[in-house]
Specification:
This protein is an alpha+beta fold and 90 residues long. Helices cover 37% and strands 37% of the residues. It has one domain (7-89): Translation Initiation Factor IF3 (2-Layer Sandwich).
Length: 90
């Protein structure tokens, strides 16, 4: 992922439709976005948001693809493993 790419942090309590709208807006303006999720609930919301966002950008001729990866992050000086999703148009 590019260092300057916008990263949206996802929690288990994130609203999938709202996240999808933010994701679609960033893809339209920046061309790509990263989602970062820790835990099964957050990963679930991220995947649902990506599915909804595909429908949001399809009328603009965009087809989103996702590349998942693991990343180590620090939260309160504690190392955690997150899943990052690179979302960009095909």
């Amino acid at each position: 992922m590019q260092d300057d790419m916008e990263i949206l942090k996802v929690s288990a309590h994130s609203k999938a439709k709202a996240l999808a709208g933010a994701l679609a807006a960033v893809v339209r303006t920046d061309g790509a976005v990263g989602l970062q999720a820790i835990g099964a609930g957050a990963v679930n919301q991220a995947i649902k948001a990506i599915a909804v966002a595909r429908g949001y950008v399809a009328p603009n001729g965009l087809d989103l693809v996702v590349v998942p990866s693991f990343v180590e992050i620090s939260i309160n000086d504690e190392a955690r493993t997150a899943i990052k999703f690179l979302v960009e148009p095909r």
